[in-house]
Amino acid sequence: MASSRREVKLGGLTRGSPELSVLEQDMRILVNSRATVEIFLSISTYARITIEKDTAIYHTSVVIGWIYFVAWSISFYPQIYENWKRKSVVGLNFDFLSLNIVGFILYSLFNCGLFWIKDVEDEYFSRYPRGLNPVQVNDIVFSLHAVIATLFTIIQCFIYEVNQYTKVELNTLICSRGNQTVSWTARAIHGIFVLVLVISLILVPTEVIVWLDFLYICSYVKLTITLIKYVPQAYMNYKRKSTEGWSIGNIFLDFTGGMLSMLQMILNAYNYNDWDSIFGDPTKFGLGLFSVVFDLFFIVQHYILYR
């Protein structure tokens, strides 16, 4: 029988010191930390009670969560506006775009699969019987929106000629189509990703892995893309000695989202005495920090190195 899963938030009489009354005779209470209590009603049923230290911190965390969600969601539009305003995509690296669209498609696949496909969700709870589904509605909305916004930016690359202006005699300007394209290095990286995903797909019907494992592999590819996707744009800015065509508004919004995301993780870890959420699984925090570092590098390029 599948375990029943419940998550209840309980405010204490004092900060971090809750009072809990239990009436059932066969109930066993296990206190994992000052902030988490697990109640085992039977072999297959339990309740997890998460205790917050401060309600104000909880509400602050919720507000911060919505702010960084909005910041990340609208971070695509400064670049779209920049392309429209200039009627050109010169300065926007195509390797970055190609990696971005693949990453967000895989992220959407992971979110939608784990949230909407019951068999996959059952596989997750079979593997983690005391877990909660890590995918929320806002994760799905963000990832699908990111796919649409990135696709629109790619369409702009086909609509607007990739213009390069070259000085000729008499200081006149001629317009020619630029040589921007997806590099062979990026194509090789995409080839590796495709190979990994195809092999994983073959392993599912042979029952070597299950669909949940395939979705996790998709998420690992997405994490890899997040680590490398900014490198082509940073190198292109360095080669051109310019950030023209690369929207700084996008960077500021991404920086805001990354900083607030990490701040929310720290506040939640303190409020629920759950520092394992950061140090026990540093991937999310590390990726946020990595993105912020690249954002700072782009800001230095834009305002100091290539003014």
Strand order of the largest sheet: 1-4-3-2
Radius of gyration, rounded? 24 Å
For the largest beta-sheet, the strand count, sense and barrel status come to: 4 strands, mixed
Distance between the termini: 64 Å
- Give me the strand/helix succession: EEEEHHHHHEEHHHHHH
Structural class by helix and strand composition: alpha+beta
Q: Into which percent range does the helicity of residues fall?
A: 55-70%
Quick one: how many beta strands?
6
What is the residue-averaged pLDDT? Answer: 81
Q: Compute the number of helices.
A: 11
Outline type: globular
Q: What is the percentage of strand-forming residues?
A: 5-15%
Transmembrane segments: 56-77, 97-117, 140-163, 184-203, 209-228, 248-267, 287-306
Protein name: Cystinosin
Main location: membrane
Catalytic activity: L-cystine(out) + H(+)(out) = L-cystine(in) + H(+)(in)
Would you kindly provide a written description of the structure presented here, covering whatever features stand out?
- Belongs to the cystinosin family.
- It catalyses: L-cystine(out) + H(+)(out) = L-cystine(in) + H(+)(in).
- Pfam families: PQ-loop.
- It is a multi-pass membrane protein.
- It is found in: Endomembrane system.
- This protein has helices spanning 55-74, 77-86, 94-116, 118-127, 137-159, 184-203, 211-228, 230-240, 248-271, 276-279, 283-305; strands at residues 7-11, 28-31, 36-40, 46-52, 163-167, 173-177.
- The longest helix has 24 residues, at 248-271.
- A hairpin with a 4-residue loop joins strand 2 and strand 3 (36-40).
- The model is unreliable at 11-34 and 164-177 (pLDDT under 50).
- It is an alpha+beta fold and 307 residues long.
- The protein is 61% helix and 10% strand.
- Strands 1-4-3-2 form a 4-stranded mixed sheet, with no helix packed on it. A two-stranded antiparallel ribbon has the order 5-6.
- Helix 2 packs parallel to helix 5, helix 8 runs parallel beside helix 11 (283-305) and helix 9 packs antiparallel against helix 11 (283-305).
- It is globular and about 60 Å long.
- It contains 11 helices and 6 strands.
